[in-house]
Amino acid sequence: MKRVVLFLVTNLAVMLVLSVVASLLGVNKFLTANGLNLGLLLGFSLVIGFGGAFISLLLSKTMAKWSTGAKVIATPANQTERWLVDTVSRLANAAGLAMPQVAIYDGAPNAFATGATRNNSLVAVSTGLLESMTREEAEAVLAHEVSHIANGDMVTLTLIQGVVNTFVIFLSRVMGYLVDSFLRRDDRQSSGPGIGYMISVIFFDIVFGILASTIVMYFSRQREFRADAGAAQLLGTPSPMVAALQRLGGLEVEPLPKSLATAGITDRPSMMSLFASHPPIEERIAALKGR
User: What is the mean pLDDT of residues 216-233?
Assistant: First the structure.
């Protein structure tokens, strides 16, 4: 879960910064000089929307390491680290991938994978997961994360986020323009957007951004099933992945930072299922057993 939530939070922050900078540079006045220019607004929304998503993607590995304190294994210091590096190497080779960076971080059982491309990625595992699982179960978790990379999930997520961002930016500025026009309906002297426009845009950017995240989270839930299936394919059997999920279901799992939530192997059940990055473990097990 960690990877996706980190990506979403970073994306929202980048979008807001880009929007504020654009406003300071006079883009808002240009777009509304003769009424709201919807064609130019759509172009502006595409640039900021996809720009924010791809900047977030490029920052994903750095943000993941910073938020979890993950330490990349340059030279294995013990048998566990050697096994971890060798296992990821073998799985990556089987999936046709370049060797990802491998990292360990202190924390309760969890793991995640992230990175800008299939051949520039990071797989990180918590000490809690390595201590609480058998080697076979931990290998299944690693296969799940390698499958995320092989499936190109982060790039696909970025494209979906870019489309969602575009609509968020476009709609928030249309709503901001309507609110501003209503507030200044009796003011015939002023031209260009007023303070009501700027405040409304920021408000709707945040509100629409949160609502739009349900679309990204839906994709995240679907990709978990694909990564589980990919792990079963890499290992030649779904049994280790089923065992790993059963183990996780009985453990106290520490949630990843919000910015990385969708990148993890599992997440706590959510009262708000639309915002859940992972499907229930029971559903994932049932899907694997039904293969």
Answer: 92
Tens of pLDDT, residues 172-199 = 888 988 888 888 776 655 556 778 888 8
pLDDT digits (tens, 9 = 90+) for 4-63: 566 666 666 766 776 777 666 666 666 666 677 778 888 888 888 888 888 888 888 888
| Catalytic positions, written as ranges | 145
What's the alpha-carbon Rg for the chain, to the nearest Å? 22
pTM, 2 dp: 0.78
CA atoms within 13 A on the CB side of 153: 33
Q: Residues 6 or more apart from 24 whose CB is under 8 A from it? A: none
